């Protein structure tokens, strides 16, 4: 029999996808809030955001003391198995009721 704690040890989506989902839901979310929601460190979120910006998936604009994020929903996912889908497709699929 499988330990219930072991079942929670992995998820189907990467932390990069989780960060995208958080930002997609709230473009004014703080990195600290993303870290809390995803369950990773603030430093990990900062690294993921840097990757997303570097690859053109995300633009960060400073609004006073806070950041505003803009996702490029037209960018294609990176893995060959999902390359036919866009960020927008992913976010739409995960936001359906």
TrEMBL record:
Domain HTH marR-type: 15-66
Signal peptide: none
A single MF term (Gene Ontology): DNA binding
Keyword DNA-binding: yes
Swiss-Prot/TrEMBL keywords: DNA-binding
InterPro entries in the cross-refs: ArsR-like_HTH, HTH_MarR-typ, WH-like_DNA-bd_sf, WH_DNA-bd_sf
UniProt-listed Pfam families: MarR_2
Protein name: DNA-binding MarR family transcriptional regulator
Taxonomic source organism: Nonomuraea dietziae
